[in-house]
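Morning!

This is the sequence you dropped in the shared folder:
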Amino acid sequence: MERLLQRLRHQPLSQQLALAAAGCCLLATLVLVIVAAQSTQSIQNTTLTDHAQAAVEQLATRAAAELATGNRLGLVAELQFYTEQPLFAAARVLDVEGAELATRGTVGTDRLTFRHAVRIDGDTAGSVELDLDLSAQTAARETLIWGLVALSFLLSAAVYALTRPMGQRLASNISEAVAQLDAISDDAPGAVNEVHKLRDRINALPLDLLRPRGVEDQSEAHYNDTAILCIALKHLPAYVDTLDESRLQSYVALLHRMAYGSAGFYAGDLAVIRQFGLAIYFTGHHAVGSPVLRAASCAWLLSRCSEAAEKRERLSFLPGMAIGLSELGRGDDGDIYPGLYTQAMLDELLELASEKVEGILLSSHAAEDAGLTAKIGIDVIDEKWMALGGVSGSHLELLERQFNILKSATAPSDEDTPQGFLPF
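The structure's back. Tokens below.
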């Protein structure tokens, strides 16, 4: 069955449509034939039952009159009258003990039998039986059913013959479209079905390049307020020229772990923006608070981790950091506009982070964030720079716990040994 269905799926479209229409027609007509056969049999059984019941009651009345007078010939004549009718195959009279008094016709065991008591002056004197011969009715019903079945197949064949030309006209339109696609391609599809050919041709097209980039394709996540923590790796240019390759890779890997771990607590998205610059983007809702507060908390963690790494590695890790607030996000390959929009801000923040000023600097827009000022203070440096100040008690406890986790995660396994403090 599975192989048959598989073969049908690869047939031409006109063949599939014609077979589907003919199959549906055949199924519908066969259901009607079954319903008609059941209905005819039910009506026939009801009619014959009523007729046979009336006949056996009439025979019981006549047999009672003949038995009362002892007229056996009259009793046999009554039975003969009923057996001469095509509906009844046999008729007989039984006494009260079930012994046969008179019979006519051929008594069978597989026939429908009707029985009625014979009463004389209110007393039961025996019973009469009539056996129905339904062979003629059954043969007529079977002939009707097979005739309707044959008619169903004829109608299905007619539907197939009418539907196939319509399917061919429809398939020809699809074939024309496939031919136009074949004209710009080197190889032709190997499928027989027109729809499969069209599908193969469409799948071969560079749909990603053909799909227009509209406003409806823009991600809402890129059009929300986004806090940007810009990180200037001030010491990395000097180490590129002074450290050997393995030591330099270890230095960069540690910077990566500290930045990635600090951003992970606050759902930050880490990215490289310049040769010696990183950016961490914070957007959307978070249990800790606003995007600016999350950026400031991440910067605080990164600063503390860098101080611990400097003591352990005997290298300078503390980067310059600046926080800004953008109306748009970083964008992606689905929508490049937000990324283009934030480039100017990234340049400004990177320049701010590169200043020789201690502390985590803030843009004027970021410093006005209510979520930030509720938990972290703002310091003004020389009436020009704004930087993060002290952290409130409850939020400071959270940062301290996160710092201890990061410290153990970023420290080497042998930090308690003398080798852990060597510069190689």
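Headline: Residues 217 and 353 are 34 Å apart (CA to CA).

More detail when I'm at my desk.
O.
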